[in-house]
Specification:
The chain is of the alpha/beta class. The protein has helices spanning 16-26, 49-57, 75-82, 89-100, 125-132, 146-159, 178-191, 208-218; strands spanning 3-9, 32-40, 61-69, 105-109, 136-140, 164-172, 195-200. The chain has a 7-stranded parallel sheet, with helices on both faces. Helix 1 packs parallel to helix 2 (49-57), helix 1 packs across helix 8 and helix 4 (89-100) packs across helix 5. The longest helix is centred in the middle third of the chain and has 14 residues, at 146-159. Pathway: Cofactor biosynthesis; biotin biosynthesis; biotin from 7,8-diaminononanoate: step 1/2. It catalyses: (7R,8S)-7,8-diammoniononanoate + CO2 + ATP = (4R,5S)-dethiobiotin + ADP + phosphate + 3 H(+). Belongs to the dethiobiotin synthetase family. InterPro entries: DTB_synth_BioD, P-loop_NTPase. Catalyzes a mechanistically unusual reaction, the ATP-dependent insertion of CO2 between the N7 and N8 nitrogen atoms of 7,8-diaminopelargonic acid (DAPA, also called 7,8-diammoniononanoate) to form a ureido ring.
Amino acid sequence: MSTILVVSGTGTEIGKTVVTAAVAAAARGRRVAVLKPAQTGLAPGEPGDAAEVARLAGSHVTAVELARFPEPLAPATAARRAGLAPVRPFEVAEAAQKLATEHDLVLVEGAGGLLVRFDDEGSTLADAARLLSAPVLVVAPAGLGTLNATALTAEALRSRGLGCRGVVIGSMPAEPDLASRCNIEDLPVAAGAPLLGAVPAGAGALPGADFAAGAARWLAPELGGSWAPGRR
């Protein structure tokens, strides 16, 4: 039976794509699809987040992008300014369900945080997750300030009846400061869900083969890896 997992985060530029790639790489041996509902900030022909996941994770990954808007803005704003139709949650759900008929794992990677608007009616990635009855994996930064943002994201999930699969640190410094070290213990409390991994800073710059080889070390067994708190 196919699994659909939504990957969101506490903000933008915190490592969602790299974490999505790590989950896809750790699922080697399974048919994996990554779905990017709305790609912003790129011109036609430039490789987007879904293509980057496939580059890092390996040839077993199918990359799908539903819509692309050129300006680096929230999807609703970027679509409006470009004069293009926005992405609707039902379109995301339909695309994910179709991919699930041909793949063992479908990863739906959001843009920005959980409640970033897809359209001017206020639809969000959370609405797509609800239509899919899919759990959400939350990507969070390592350092100071992450606990509040993680707690707010988890509260938003709970208020919508959505499950939080867990939290993954999107970019763990090689030499973590005091806050980053303490957050290993505090993030699960803030989220009310387990910490399921920590992807090292700079991992996205690795060659695909090296990234794929390392992915299992960065993720907990629940995501197909061997990582445990305290292990890097």
